[in-house]
Amino acid sequence: MRFGERYPEGVAQLYWIETLGCPKNQVDSDKLVGTMVADGMDRADRLEDADLVVVNTCAFIEEARQESVDTILALDQARRPDAELVVTGCLAERYGDELAVALPEVDRVASFGVPVTLGRTRSADPVGRSRFDLLELPRPTATAPWAYVKIAEGCDRNCGFCAIPTFRGPQRSRSIDAIVAEVEQLEVQEVVLVAQDLAAYGRDQGRGTRRIVPLVDEVARRVPWVRLLYLYPSDLSDELIDTICRTGVPYFDLSLQHVSRPLLRAMRRWGDGDRFHDRIAAIRAREPLATFRSNFIVGYPGETEVDHDRLLSFVEAARLDWCGFFAYSEEEGTHGAQLDGKVPVGLRDERLAELRALQDRITAEKRDELIGSQPLVLIDRPGVARSAAEAPEIDGIITVPDHLPVGAFATATITGATGPDLQAASAELSTAPAPAPARV
Ligand code: SF4
Predict the structure, then answer these.
(1) What are the backbone angles phi and psi of residue 16, rounded to the nearest 5°?
(2) pLDDT for the residue numbered 27
(3) What is the pTM of this model?
C-alpha cells in the first residue's frame, strides 16, 4: 500500500520507540523523537497502533546484546503486521548488515546518524532524509523535572574490557554554547551530565585542557541542580571536586572498575585501592554530605582470589552509598579478549553474589542512618522524590506525601528506610535552590 493511500492529508503517522541501555542512549532516543515529530509523526499510545516501531539498542556486553535481540523479537510479535520495525543504536552500529541478515524480522537497520523515518516523511524539509549528527540534534522539552544531557560522544581510552570506542568512535565534545542552549530548552530543575568519559570533556577541542569545570559552572548558573555521571578517577582534580560541591549536588559517580593494581593494569586503567581511598577520604573531609557511587567488573581474565579479597575489603572499608557489580563479558577486539586466565563462570558468579550482598548491607545501613534527617528533595512524580544523594533511575527513591507538585522542591523529614529507599511522612514545600553564582 503506497504512502499517500494509507495516510490521507492531515493524518499523522504514529511512532513507538523502545530504548535500551544507558542514559546516553536515552538522550539519543529523545533526539530521534525530535526527528520523528519534526517529520510530522505523533507518538502512539499503544504499540499496536504504531506505524513505525523503533528499537534503540545497546551492545555494550553480551547480556545487553541478548536483551536487545529479545526486545526486537518481542516487538516484532506485538507490532501491527504492516508496521515498520527499525533497529538503531549500538547494536545496529556495531553489527550493521550482519544484524540485518541474522534478524530477517527487522525491516531496516539504521546505524548512527541514519534516519529512522526514511520514506515516511511529509514535511517540506525532512530531518530524516539526510544523515544527521545525533549529538547535535534538537530535542523536545523534557517531560520530567530532570533530564540527561549528553556533552560528548565516543571515548579516547581503551579499557581492556570495553568495545565502546570501536563503535562510538573517538571522543567528540560539543560546544559549551550548544549544551547550554539544550539545557535552557529542556526547562528542568535538574540536569544530569553524561558522556562515556565525562571528566575528559573538551580535551579533544585542541586546547589540551579539559573544559568540564567551565561547563559545569555555566550549566549550574541555569538550573538548581547539576549532577555528573561517569567520572574517570584520574580526572577528578581538586578544582573539579570544588565545582561539583558548589553545584549543591555533591554526588561523585566514580568509574573505578576494580581496586587491585595488577588487575587494573591488565584492564589498562589507572589507580588502585589506596589512591581511591585517599581521594574519597579527601572529598568526605571537604564535604561530609558527599555521596559516592561506583561500578566494578568481576571476573576479568587473570582475576585471583587475592584480587577479589582486595575488592571485598575496599567495599567494606569505603562504604560507598551505591555500587553496581557487573560480570565481565568478553568483547571482540578488546585487550581482555586476548588475555589468558579466564575466570570460570561459576566462580565469577559466586564473587558477584558475595560483593552484591555486602554492598546491599552497606547501602541499607547508610540509608538507616538518614532516618531523622531533613534533606531538600525534588518531586519527580506524585509521591516520589529524590535528594542530592540519589541519581534518577539507578539509585533509591524517597516516598513523600503525594499532594506535592511534580517539579517542586521540598524539605522532607525522613521517618523510615527500606533497603535502598527512604520514606518521608511529611515534607514542606520550599524554594528551589538558587543556581550557583558565577565564579569570580
Ligand atoms: S572510559 Fe573505558 S570503559 Fe568508559 S567508554 Fe571509554 S574505554 Fe569504555
Answers:
(1) -135, 130
(2) 95
(3) 0.93
